[in-house]
């Protein structure tokens, strides 16, 4: 059996550095497990050098987090177009 001598994440970090990710999900301040996971994922990617933008599935309350590029709202078709434009740069 071969035992790794370096942490697995060191190689993964090199591959993520300089990349950008767009995430479509619930996000804080929405109180749910998926929102919490998404915030942790975004933080982990950023720590490893990636740029992260979030399109937040909104529940009425807005987010002040700078990662949130746009918010998609139920029954507001224009919010989808806005989110798409923001992710496209």
Can I get a quick summary?
With 89 residues, the protein is of the alpha/beta class. The protein is 40% helix and 20% strand.
What does this structure look like?
With 89 residues, this protein is α/β, with parallel strands linked by helices. It has one domain (19-88): 3-Layer(aba) Sandwich (Rossmann fold). The chain contains three helices and three strands, in the order αβαββα. It has helices at residues 8-16, 33-47, 77-88, and strands spanning 20-25, 51-57, 68-72. A three-stranded parallel sheet has the order 1-2-3. α2 (33-47) links the parallel β1 and β2. The termini are far apart. The model is unreliable at 2-8 (pLDDT under 50). One of its GO terms (molecular function) is transferase activity. This is Glycosyltransferase, group I. It comes from mine drainage metagenome.
Spell out the blueprint of helices and strands.
Elements: H1 8-16, E1 20-25, H2 33-47, E2 51-57, E3 68-72, H3 77-88
Parallel strand pairs: 1-2, 2-3
């Amino acid at each position: 059996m071969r035992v790794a001598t370096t942490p697995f994440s060191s190689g993964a970090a090199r591959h993520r550095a300089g990349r950008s990710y767009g995430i479509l999900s619930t996000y804080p301040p929405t109180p749910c497990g998926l929102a919490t996971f998404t915030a942790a994922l975004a933080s982990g990617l950023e720590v490893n050098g990636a740029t992260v933008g979030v399109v937040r599935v909104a529940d009425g309350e807005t987010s002040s987090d700078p990662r949130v590029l746009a918010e998609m709202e139920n029954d507001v078709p224009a919010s989808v177009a806005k989110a798409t434009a923001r992710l496209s740069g």
